[in-house]
Amino acid sequence: xxxxxxxxxEAKQSYLxxxxxxxxxxxxxxxxxxxxxxxxxxxxHIKSVNGKEMKALKVFTExxxxxxxxxxxxxxxxxxxxxxxxxxxxxxxxxxxxxxPSAKPFMRGAAIQAGIVTDGNTDNLxxxxxxxxxxxxxxxxxxxxxxxETRINLHDLRSPEDQHIxxxxxxENIDFAVHEDLQGGRLKMLHRSSVNDLGGKSxxxxxxxxxxxxxxxxVWDEYEKNYPTEVQRMMYEFSLLKKGDGDIQFCCPFNLGxxxxxxxxxxxxxxxxxxxxxxxxxxxxxxxxLRSFFAQSLQGxxxxxxxxxxxxxxxxxxxxxxxxxQCVILRKHIxxxxxxxxxxxxxxxxxxxxxxxxVMLGQH
Length: 364
Fold this sequence. Notes:
- There is one protein chain.
- The protein has 13 helices and 13 strands.
- By secondary structure, it is α/β, with parallel strands linked by helices.
- It has 3 domains: about 10-120, no CATH class; about 145-200 and about 295-350, ATPase, nucleotide binding domain (Nucleotidyltransferase, domain 5); about 200-290, no CATH class.
- A 6-stranded mixed beta sheet has the order 5-13-12-6-7-8, sandwiched between helices.
- Strand 3, helix 4 (about 105-115) and strand 4 (about 125-130) form a beta-alpha-beta unit.
- Helix 3 packs across helix 4 and helix 11 (about 285-310) packs across helix 12 (about 330-340).
- The protein is globular, with a radius of gyration of 23 Å.
- It starts with 7 loop residues before the first helix and ends with a helix.
């Protein structure tokens, strides 16, 4: 089996640049966060984009190994006179609030296999709940550190009696946590819950369903089967476009257009399709249609937040973080729905809030 090749954005770009046949022989894991209640022990393997599976422990171990090696390389390249090793540091691993109890020993085992810690120095490994990490970071930010349309006074948010809802909006799942501030800066967990399949990937799924409606008569299915890396490229492009709140347009891939033309004139495919149009090789999707892709996700998130508020918590603020929180449509919806109940705040660069908060927790 081919060894570890690349990680993160580089891995995505590498996978999208290779041919379909070569891609089918590789493992490309995208959004493999899976540590959720009643699900963790059963999920011994993780499925890659092309359907192939690998042991979960192997996937997590190699991801952690890359991060560890990259950190040490970066540090050692920028210092002189000494060389650091993994044992010189305290390492913080974040776990979802909704994780199964077996997540921590699993992650500890992956960290040991990755060389982050050894059986003899596991005290150098700290676990942090994602909501605690995100809240720790957000509460330290100045007032201008948030994406907001109104003036805010963070002093009002720091009362020892404040209770907060943290929404961690990711690609796969949405996690909710309620924390209360205690004296001395400590937090008390009052509630946690999670919903599956309402994150950014659910929006992507609606988009793909719409493309299948446009490219009928099996055109899209044939394209998806024969050109999987091109489909991935289209989905990656959409993941960037969906962050806005307006009309979007993109070039129709050559192979998709070729397959469509075998059945009928491609312009005819768009006749009678509400929310999409064709213009000399460009596909344009209207703002209203884009918003419709979010509808199910927004409805589910709103329902779960209202359930939490109706439990009688004294909520002072909703904090929105995570990958999916980069989408303007999501942020505006949550703000519009709950601004009369409490403050709604989303930090700039919301996907990094958990990471930055984890570093803070490790330092203190």
